[in-house]
Design goal:
Elements (H helix, E strand, L loop, with lengths): L2 E2 L1 E3 L2 E3 L3 E6 L2 E10 L3 H19 L3 H17 L1 H12 L3 H23 L4 E4 L5 E9 L2 E5 L7 H12 L3 E5 L5 H13 L7 E3 L4 H10 L5 E5 L2 H14 L2 E5 L4 E5 L5 H13 L9 E7 H16 L19 H17 L2 E4 L16 E6 L4 H4 L6 E7 L2 H9 L3 E2 L1 E5 L3 H10 L4 E4 L15 E2 L2 E2 L9 H4 E9 L1
Parallel strand pairs: 1-5, 8-9, 8-11, 9-10, 11-12, 13-14, 13-19, 14-17, 16-17, 19-20
Antiparallel strand pairs: 2-3, 4-5, 6-7, 7-23, 12-22, 15-16, 18-21
Length: about 475
């Protein structure tokens, strides 16, 4: 099988490789992907630093054209790339294609942003002096992405980095090198100069650490666990570099007595279990008021009976496999923890056998949970949700905010009063009313509060806050 290599200084390099395994069928090898060494990572950083002066001063039309060409090719290949995504990560084919389309939209948006670079001209408080405020690229940007959105998250980091004139060293998650390699290959063929974008696939402890240790990396954007995020922050402070962190979530979805039951159930099922619950915006705490609690639980159980867990590529599958054995073990451990803590496993939670060997798990729903239990405090990152019964809206809001995380928060209600109050008082970066907590548009800011996020928001025009630095220039006369 052909080895998919790393891209360093415009050249494909690397020979030592690992298998990329399909979690729906562990006998299926998606491809062999090179593993970068620390020396490879350093070479990529050197290449990015050398390429920065020319690229940072490149014409905006050149950047626009490259990003636009990339968007067009991704969209034209959405079925192929979506299938690749589903094979290596385990999302359903519909979700894989949808994420690929979103990646195209992100590149298209930032192609436009390259043409919309702007600044300000202001009068000084002193006579005969003018003031110009402009934005300039940061420099070499290190990009570290997770496995759960293997094409969308790289897109929403790489696209703005390039649009604003930065050069990039990109390390994708080890589990999903396929989409990363494909998107870098498309950008490379779209005409990026050598060294502007470098791909170094490999272990975080090797490649990621080399990036953290280098004083020549001017900014790092990271999406992953809170523990690793704190390491990124500590290392970045030492080098006085910019850093942006998107980390965990323990997102609440509140269901009030006046909610439309069908809307509430569909939003809860989508939030908790779609993408196998492997989303930082997933709702794993379903906070339900007493008047609707029993009807909601019964309706959830009935809805869950019709969820098909299976091979991600099969048309009738609603929920694909867990990404790998390690994540499956973690999910199973948390189900056992929930039982020990006194929560009632009302539905699901069993390992599932299918025609092919894979990491299949029936979605699990706990009832009689409290907000003090570990299953209500810690991010499980799997298809496991807990129902917490509360008296009224005030208690629901208090429980929703009682978490160290603050990424996304949702409510199902027909009350304009409660919806308005919740939008204002939910301690989260994103709030959803009668919608799933997972799922955001590509042109608006993404990010959270507390231990979920640190630094400027991602996506949309707000991305410029991280990928540029502000310069103030004065002119006399």
């Amino acid at each position: 099988m052909t080895i998919h290599q790393n891209l360093i200084a415009g050249e494909w390099v690397g020979s030592d490789a690992i298998n990329n395994i399909n979690p729906s069928n562990t006998n299926d090898v998606v491809g062999d992907y090179a593993q970068a060494s620390a020396e490879d990572a350093m070479a990529a950083i050197v290449a990015a630093k050398a390429a920065f002066p020319a690229w940072s001063r490149s014409g905006i039309l050149e950047r626009h054209a490259i990003l636009r060409k990339t968007a067009d090719e991704i969209l034209a290949r959405k079925d192929e790339l979506g299938r690749l995504l589903s094979r290596e990560e385990g999302k359903t084919l519909a979700e894989g294609i949808g994420e690929t389309v979103r990646a195209s939209q992100i590149f298209d948006f930032f192609a436009g942003e390259a043409l919309r670079l702007s600044g300000e001209t202001l009068p000084s408080v002193r006579p005969n002096i003018g003031v110009e405020i402009s934005r300039e690229p940061v420099g070499v940007v290190g990009i570290i992405t997770p496995w759960n959105f293997p094409i969308a998250i790289p897109a929403w980091k790489i696209a703005p980095a390039l649009a604003y004139g930065n050069t990039v060293v990109f390390k994708p998650a080890e589990l999903v090198p396929g989409c990363a390699h494909a998107i870098v290959d498309i950008l490379h063929r779209a005409g990026l100069p050598k060294g502007v974008l470098n791909l170094v696939m490999g272990k975080g402890s090797v490649v990621g650490q080399a990036m953290l240790d280098s004083p020549d990396v001017d900014a790092i954007t990271f999406t992953g666990s809170t523990v690793t995020g704190k390491r990124v922050a500590s290392a970045s402070i030492e080098h006085n570099r910019k850093f942006q962190l998107e980390m965990g979530g323990k997102n609440p979805f509140v269901i009030l007595d006046d909610a439309d039951l069908d809307i509430a159930v569909e939003a809860a099922v989508n939030s908790a279990f779609f993408s196998t619950g492997q989303r930082c915006t997933a709702s794993s705490r379903l906070i339900v008021t007493e008047g609707i609690h029993d009807r909601f639980v019964a309706a959830m159980g009935e809805r869950m009976k019709h969820l098909v867990v299976g091979d991600a590529l099969k048309a009738d599958t609603h929920i694909g496999p867990v990404v790998d054995q390690k994540q499956l073990d973690q999910d199973v451990d948390y189900i056992a923890i929930g039982k020990r803590e006194g929560a009632r496993l009302a539905f699901g939670g069993d390992l599932a056998r299918r025609d092919t060997p894979g990491f299949y798990l029936q979605p699990a729903l706990f009832t009689e949970a409290t907000n003090r239990m570990r299953i209500s405090r810690e991010e499980i990152f799997g298809p496991v949700a807990a129902v917490i019964r509360v008296r009224d809206y005030d208690e629901a809001l208090a429980i929703a905010n009682d978490t160290p995380f603050g990424l996304s928060s949702g409510i199902a209600t027909a009350s304009l009063k409660h919806a308005t109050h919740f939008k204002r008082h939910a301690e989260a970066g994103m709030v959803m009313v009668n919608l799933p907590t997972a799922g955001v548009d590509f042109h608006v800011p993404f990010g959270g509060r507390k231990q979920s996020s640190y630094g400027p928001r991602e996506q949309g025009k707000y991305a410029s806050e991280f990928y540029t630095v502000v310069k103030t220039a004065y002119t006399f006369g």
